[in-house]
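To close the section, here is one more complete example, presented without commentary so you can practise reading it yourself. The ligand is NAP.
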Amino acid sequence: MSKIAMKTPLVEMDGDEMTRVLWAMIKDKLILPYIDLKTQYYDLGLLHRNETQDAVTAEAAAATKRLGVAVKCATITPNAQRMEEYPQLTEMWRSPNGTIRAILDGTVFRAPITVKNIRPLVPNWQRPITVARHAYGDMYRAAEFRTEEPGTATLRFVGESGAVTEKEVAKLSPGAILQGMHNLDASIGHFAEACFRYALDQRQDLWFSTKDTISKIYDGRFKEIFDGVFEQYRTDFKKYGLSYFYTLIDDAVARVMRSGGGFVWALKNYDGDVMSDMVSTVFGSLAMMTSILVSPDGKYEYEAAHGTVTRHYYRHLKGEKTSTNPVATIFAWTGALKKRGELDGLPDLADFAEKLERAALDTIEAGDMTADLATLAVGQVRILNSEDFLDAIARRMN
Ligand code: NAP
Ligand code: MG
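Output:
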């Protein structure tokens, strides 16, 4: 059988621990037998990031800007405990995802992978709901303090010209807390661009919600910017029968709960933080959740939403066969290959990715799955270790 050819290489970002083990297995069993794989390989494993003073992360992000599509393995973000575990670390390196997101100026879309035998906790959510969270500003970059003294709080801005704008916030009785936050037109605009682009890609409606009845200027500006960006997408949305729907956040929550799913829900930073955990819990498992970083100029990075599954890795190191779920990592690969196929006009490549996704889902729907899904699934269940599960998918592919 001849292998499927590629044109442009994928940016391949390898990672850490159990997901690094799965990464190699997925390539060996599910990708390399079928695809004449072209990648530019970057080792984002913690020790290699350390050796390169983290330059490798920035290089991988730059390659993504150049080539357009990346697939990333989960990586360790070092904390105090990791500094003890890896004494050779010269610095507590920053989160690679944070670095890449900043360089690409991207928005993260979290999308669940759904199978028939795992019923969402909200029974009417028959189709996936993708959450897009704005990742800049608001309370995450706020100044705040507490005061015991009574007084007057004001919000004050000094322009570069020296012009001062000042507004009274409140006259405070003793014992008060204060917070000042901001956002930027450019950041909101890029977020909106990424949301419309992603929804169009997925052929799904876009929902957006804020509280602009209360916050007329701040949240009102979010709404205005989304409305403006929509004008650039209106024709394309119409062409594919898609809609852009704005409603107040509380109304949106009520409508989302009653909906059948199948749309992209764009949210401000805090709302997205909260709602993405709610949505992923309803759909069952972090191991069945993908994460796609989309930049406003249309660069894509695909990965699993979960981490490096450390506890399983330590069992793996002891020689145990673990039942770690590789599905989200498989979908990171298929997402990237599909996008590459679309961009390079290679229908066979996109078609292969679809088939691999179908084979993974069919395997689970036939009752063969990893341990994390066994408690969630209805009907017949056989628990397999990761390797046997991947082999079961490979048999379906053949
Ligand atoms: P985690 O790796 O997502 O794992 C937390 C727990 O969730 C696991 O112990 C496991 O539960 C379950 N789990 C997650 N993914 C699974 C899978 N594919 N199959 C089966 N079970 C799965 O989160 P963490 O332990 O908090 O973080 C570990 C490391 O990952 C940290 O160093 C963190 O910095 C990094 N991290 C990276 C990313 C990223 O690169 N995108 C994201 C998050 C975290 P049981 O042990 O109960 O089976
Ligand atoms: Mg959170």
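Once you have examined the tokens, check your reading against these statements. DSSP finds 14 helices and 16 strands in the chain. The pocket of magnesium ion (ligand 2) is lined by residues 273, 277 (CB under 6 Å).
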